[in-house]
């Protein structure tokens, strides 16, 4: 997933090897016409504080499997050991499904497998529910979503990624989907132990229109964008990992040799935002924060302009690979040229730490990719900002009967099983021998597994954020420890964890800034153009939007932490 994408599936390695890595790009893609319906819930705003506590499920930590590295500072849990199939635990001792039929519409990247395949059959038998998949092209999912939610033919379950919650979709979620509170709020969730073990922050994000409507895919709140680098080349050349923006510039100039077709990096804009402490651009509500009694948006800050100016200087110095000068190079696959040594550093989703390692393991054994700790621009500790703790949700049709809702929750209770359980292996790997084999404690998908076991059941609900790579345990350890170090300098902005629906008249107000940023760092526009755009943003509704957020803050209080 690219840095300008929302932070949902990037936390799951199952997506790292699929086309979602380049497909699920956020942006102001127009949706089809109006969708919605009537419901008692509030159309915009949020639910938090005492009101949320009445709605949220009780949290009961799972004790089925103990991770090798517990969560710390918002990190995922980590597993670094080999996998022993004989030692897999059981987290769902009896089928909770009652044999009903449930239709699920979900985004899919790649070619969907045939109905009735061995993976779908085995999962349905394990759960006790006949799940029928209506897989839709993930690249155009927003259009299909808009059309389906505007119609009267809504499937039993609809998966909605956070990056598709634009335009009228949030209103449609409130109007079209069921309140799961009667089944999950408080102690009721204990009927579904794997759902009870989902962190409360992720459930908080699942409240839409004053009701608990979503089944979440939890994620670490630590930034997922890592400055990835060729550690093998660094060691060979004697390069030091930079600890400030000046050190990075000096390193970049030293490492660049255009005649030899080597440049230091790709577009480092997203790392610059982190180094300068710029509020998140992944989700609009996270871009707001209260400081010194004033509510300010990310584009209004000096740090925002300083980060763009520093990134512009990298381009101007000639240390950025020529591909990046052409535009959104980071949305393309950087792997081959990174492996060839044409550039040494790029910022991307953490999932590529593992996927690049796996790609090069046999053909280039000296290759080593690693993650740099994010530095403060002036050499001090950085100030990082938390991402939201869930970014993909499954919703149940509000017309669904209680038996259908119970069957959906039975599905979710299996798919949310923790790593190290039989249910996790079934969900993520399929049937042993048919979809995967295990050698020396490392599960490897077969050709059939790569066809059948793709992003389906995992989209209904997931366990707490988990990192496990039995094939490369050193990468799993490195990733979790990176999250823990970065989590120690991560702050939660004022609206962290709140599921906020902005009034429709302002939802597209800042959509053009990403393109403007890219133009500025490449020298096509100037910092003064950004300042003018910010002024226009204020006059066209930004200041009114600030007042609207201020009211939410006054009514609900800021995020804790």
TrEMBL record:
<dbReference type="InterPro" id="IPR006059">
    <property type="entry name" value="SBP"/>
</dbReference>
<keyword id="KW-0813">Transport</keyword>
<comment type="similarity">
    <text>Belongs to the bacterial solute-binding protein 1 family.</text>
</comment>
<dbReference type="InterPro" id="IPR006311">
    <property type="entry name" value="TAT_signal"/>
</dbReference>
<protein>
    <submittedName>
        <fullName>Extracellular solute-binding protein</fullName>
    </submittedName>
</protein>
<dbReference type="InterPro" id="IPR050490">
    <property type="entry name" value="Bact_solute-bd_prot1"/>
</dbReference>
<keyword id="KW-0732">Signal</keyword>
<dbReference type="Pfam" id="PF13416">
    <property type="entry name" value="SBP_bac_8"/>
</dbReference>
